[in-house]
Specification:
The chain is α/β, with parallel strands linked by helices. It is built from 16 helices and 15 strands. It binds iron/sulfur cluster (SF4) (2 copies).
């Protein structure tokens, strides 16, 4: 990095410097820590990283700083084990970006649903949508082609997947394709014991949508009286058979007062109910004013990201944080980067093979890394930050807009700024 009197200063191999428009961050990929550097520190380290010696740094810096002061600063970093010294220049290893590979696929086996959830992204209960189910043969082809691409995880989803009479045949075919993880996403209302036994024998996991521990709230969201008790019965059977089950909890205006209690109750009975997500601004979720007001404040990004690891950092340098490696096949054969990205169609399987789509237009979506996202491209946290394009697109209509939950302004280095999510909700 930099040299002074025969001593070379360099970052350790597990540290990376990320430059923003004003500040930089020093990311420790081993200890999962991020240090925010002020402008002077950013300038020194950035110049050193460009191969300048300490004397050159002192001359090139915008502010007056003596060589001794720079040396003192560097020694301080060495003492804190953020820099190391050596008597020879250390060549930094360059990391090749991960090659594109399909890792996870959602397969929408039907657009039909027996519930009428107000916020549904696919609007399956809309009477104008009279789409026929994809054929068994077609769905087998999807699974086969995904497996050939090296994909090891699949979710069968809908609509309501258990409305299909051939769902067992499809599960068995997924097994034949040797997916390591097979999950079915369901509202749980149609589960009966023979089906649950079948799923348990094949180690299939299940994800169930639940909106509240209170029947009235849940049924008002699903639009079908009695659906709450059927879903609970389904959940009980899944637990009795020891099936790996998680609950998908969506926070909405109707249930935001109860969502935490619901999550606690589910966790207490052994169900994995992750932190509830607010309803996505997609499909019905965009149109009905279903946004949780109080809960939205809890999902704001108000401090530097802290959940990251080396793999995430290296992947995010080249690819989109969430979309990379994922694809969803809708019931009409469209291939999109995630189930919420209904308008980002990379191709259609009725017209071309999955391989061509994945290695063709899908790369444009997978390749939307933070360097291409407005505002984020100048942020020093951009490769350790979690992204969700459907949030941005749903709220602004701009696929490249900054995450609307974020309050950081890279130009000033201040948190608490312009936040599209609050503007939308309030
Ligand atoms: S969303 Fe963008 S601006 Fe906000 S912290 Fe993440 S990378 Fe930075
Ligand atoms: S992009 Fe957003 S909606 Fe899509 S899978 Fe990722 S987190 Fe979920």
């Amino acid at each position: 990095m930099g040299v002074s009197k025969g001593v070379f200063y360099t970052l350790t191999p597990k540290e990376v410097l990320c430059r923003g428009v004003k500040y930089s961050s020093l990311v420790d990929l081993k200890k999962h820590k991020v240090y925010h550097l002020n402008e002077t520190a950013s300038e020194i380290l950035n110049l050193l990283e460009r191969g300048r010696g300490i004397g050159e740094v002192a001359r090139e810096m915008k502010r007056d700083l003596e060589e001794e002061e720079i040396q003192e600063f560097l020694e301080e970093l060495v003492n804190r084990r953020l820099l190391k010294t050596s008597t020879r220049p250390i060549r930094k290893r360059s990391h090749r970006p991960r090659p594109p590979k399909l890792d996870f696929i959602w397969c929408e086996v039907t657009a039909r649903c027996n519930l009428k959830c107000v916020h549904c992204y696919a609007k399956t209960h809309n009477s104008e949508i009279k789409q026929e189910d994809p054929s068994t043969q077609f769905l087998k082809r999807v699974m086969e082609e995904a497996a050939q691409e090296g994909c090891r995880r699949i979710q069968l989803t809908g609509g309501e997947a258990f409305l299909r009479k051939d769902i067992m045949e499809l599960v068995d075919y997924a097994k034949e394709c040797k997916f390591d993880e097979i999950e079915i996403f369901t509202n749980g209302t149609l589960l009966r014991e023979p089906m649950v036994r079948f799923l348990s024998e094949r180690s299939v996991s299940v994800a169930v949508s639940l909106y509240s521990y209170l029947e009235g709230t849940h049924d008002s969201i699903t639009g079908v009286p009695g659906s709450h008790s059927k879903t609970l019965k389904g959940l009980k059977m899944l637990l009795d058979y020891g099936i790996k089950t998680r609950c998908s909890l969506i926070a909405m205006r109707q249930n935001e007062e109860e969502i935490e209690r619901t999550s606690d109750i589910l966790s207490a009975i052994g169900l994995n109910a992750r932190t509830p997500d607010p309803v996505r601004p997609v499909g019905g979720g965009k149109e009905g004013g279903y946004w949780p007001k109080k809960y939205s404040r809890r999902v704001l990004i108000e401090e530097p990201p802290c959940e990251f690891d080396e793999e995430m950092y290296r992947t995010n340098k080249a690819w989109n944080d969430c979309w990379f490696g994922k694809a969803a096949v809708t019931s009409s054969g469209d291939v999109i980067p995630c189930v919420f990205a209904r308008e980002q169609v990379a191709g259609n399987l009725l017209k071309e093979p999955l391989k061509d789509i994945i290695h063709g237009r899908m790369l444009e979506y997978w390749g939307l890394n933070a360097d291409k996202i407005e505002v984020c491209q100048g942020c020093e946290f951009r490769y350790i930050c979690h992204d969700c394009r459907p949030w941005s697109y749903g709220l602004t209509g701009n696929l490249l807009a900054k995450n609307p939950k974020c309050t950081y302004i890279p130009e000033t280095g201040k948190w608490g700024g312009d936040c599209k999510l609050l503007q939308y909700v309030c």
